[in-house]
Design goal:
This is 4'-phosphopantetheinyl transferase superfamily protein. By secondary structure, the chain is of the alpha+beta class. The protein has one domain (about 1-218): Alpha-Beta Complex (Ribosomal Protein L22, Chain A). Helix content is about 30%, strand content about 30%. The relative contact order is 0.16.
Length: about 220
């Protein structure tokens, strides 16, 4: 369904398609400490959380990490991966996914997915800088009705990549996304100080979803 080219070669990616928003099968299989993170949430939230964590554990297993270690939450809800690994999780209606990689190859990474649909009215004005708005207008004129979702996903993936490296908030206005038609993008970081001036990014629109990844390789 999704190209593994979205990620560096060292990464492992696992996704789950589901129409059962409140299926708690994977939630009940989590480590008790993981279950406790959302124990007071509604079933839909528990289901999303359990499915995404299940994907994360599967990705780590593919990297040779022994099962059993809980992925807890850090600052601002950031997933706490095993010491020598980095990764990211995402979930939206119908799709849950996670990607993980060894820190010897990837410093940080982020992933985000959204339905391949137009953004709600007015949202693009809240998230887009002027150059981004010009590219959005061109893409929309070409018939890419999901162009706003792509920009949103790219910014969310950029934030998920940024935060583990800095423990600082990054607003929509603090990164400028140069989306390219070949399925790549560059996220230029405008906030200062910054550990790196830009993140590499990749994107795909497939099977009704927009998926974007951002990463910093070692």
């Amino acid at each position: 369904m999704m190209d593994l080219d979205l990620f560096p070669a060292s990464a492992r990616f696992v996704y789950l398609r589901t129409d059962e928003a409140d299926d708690l099968t994977n939630y009940w299989e989590l480590h008790p400490e993981e279950q406790g993170l959302v124990s007071h949430a509604v079933d839909k939230r528990k289901g999303e959380f359990g499915d995404a964590r299940w994907c994360a554990h599967q990705a780590l297993t593919e990297l040779g990490v022994p099962p059993g270690e809980a992925i807890l939450k850090g600052d601002s809800g950031m997933p706490l991966w095993p010491e020598k690994y980095t990764g990211s999780l995402t979930h939206t209606d119908g799709l849950r996914a996670a990607v993980a990689a060894p820190k010897t190859h990837v410093s940080s990474m982020g992933i985000d997915a959204e339905p391949a649909q137009p953004l709600p009215e007015g949202v693009i004005d809240q998230i887009a800088r002027a150059p981004e708005r010009h590219r959005f207008d061109r893409m929309k004129a070409d018939g890419d009705e999901w162009a706003g979702r792509l920009l949103f996903c790219a910014k969310e993936a950029t934030y998920k990549c940024w935060f583990p490296m800095t423990r600082r908030w990054l607003g929509f206005e603090d990164a400028e996304i140069d989306i390219r038609p070949d399925g790549t993008f560059i996220a230029y970081i405008l906030a200062r100080p910054t550990p790196v001036p830009f993140f590499e990014g990749r994107w795909v629109v497939r099977n009704g979803f927009v998926i974007a990844s951002a990463f910093v390789e070692v």
